[in-house]
Design brief:
By secondary structure, the chain is of the alpha/beta class. Helices cover 31% and strands 29% of the residues. It is flat and about 60 Å long.
């Protein structure tokens, strides 16, 4: 048994497999930040802090003749999205039903992915600094005309090169910006998505929660995501009608090289 308490839930092993598979299917496309930053872990629920490799001097000491320094760490943040599932629906799942109502799980998966993306790209006050807010480069407006995106993205990659930041580069696009890109074909019918990939020499990801876009280097070592517990389903309680569950993760994020990214506003 662990802290997720899944053994106490009135859910069969087969139903747990279905729930885990549904959660993964919903989470993988939406967890955009993980596709572009360095991911370390998962290190487990007991992993509580990220070592920063730095210290701070303490003023006092227990006795004369000694000095002291305190190690600096970045605490991990625990994020939880609660949801409820009908016990009748779970019973139908065990009977072999293929149209079980799992919309509450889908919503929770979207919300926890949204929270992670926002924290990584825009920051979380008092917890972590995001890529866009840390970038020292001037924020350039993308605008609503997607045919101008190649010019803005090329300008961002050139800015990174001028600062000695090597590629390949990745591009995270907010929902509105991604939709404009996939709907646009340039003169002659050449897909805009392919044009942008040629500029970046790297991936383009759909990033719900991101406002605008971010161009960043994928050379490694610039943006570090430290995962304690990866996103998992846990059990809270139940009654004769519903089972109360949640999705939970723990993580920290830090920007090591702020100049390795350029934020593009919407």
């Amino acid at each position: 048994m662990n802290h997720l308490l899944r053994e106490h839930a009135p859910i069969s092993d087969a139903a747990w497999r279905e729930l885990d598979g549904e959660a993964k299917e919903r989470l993988v496309p939406a967890l955009a930040a993980r596709k572009l930053v360095d991911f370390s872990g998962p290190h487990g629920w007991q992993h509580s802090a990220t070592n920063l490799g730095r210290v701070e001097r303490l003023d006092g000491a227990p006795c004369e003749g000694v000095s002291a320094r305190r190690r600096r760490v970045l605490p991990l943040i625990e994020v939880r999205a609660a949801f409820e599932l009908s016990r009748d629906e779970l019973c139908d799942l065990d009977r072999g039903a293929e149209d079980v109502e799992l919309e509450p799980l889908d919503r929770a998966a979207h919300q926890i992915a949204l929270a992670e993306n926002i924290a990584v790209f825009h920051g979380w006050q008092g917890a972590m600094t995001g890529i866009a807010e840390a970038s020292p480069h001037e924020h350039t407006a993308l605008g609503e005309n997607a045919e101008q995106y190649p010019r803005q993205v090329a300008g961002a990659t050139e800015r990174l090169l001028c600062n000695g930041i090597a590629g390949p580069y990745g591009l995270a696009l907010g929902r509105a910006q991604y939709r404009r890109v996939v709907e646009t074909a340039e003169h002659g019918g050449y897909p805009l998505l392919d044009h942008l990939r040629r500029i970046l020499e790297g991936p383009i990801v759909w990033a719900p929660g991101l406002e605008g876009a971010v161009v960043l280097s994928l050379r490694g070592g610039d943006f570090l995501f430290d995962c304690g517990q990866d996103i998992s389903i846990g059990y809270a309680s139940h009654d004769e009608r519903v089972v109360r569950l949640y999705l939970e993760e723990s993580f920290s994020f830090r920007v090591v090289t702020p100049e390795a990214a350029v934020a593009l506003t919407g």
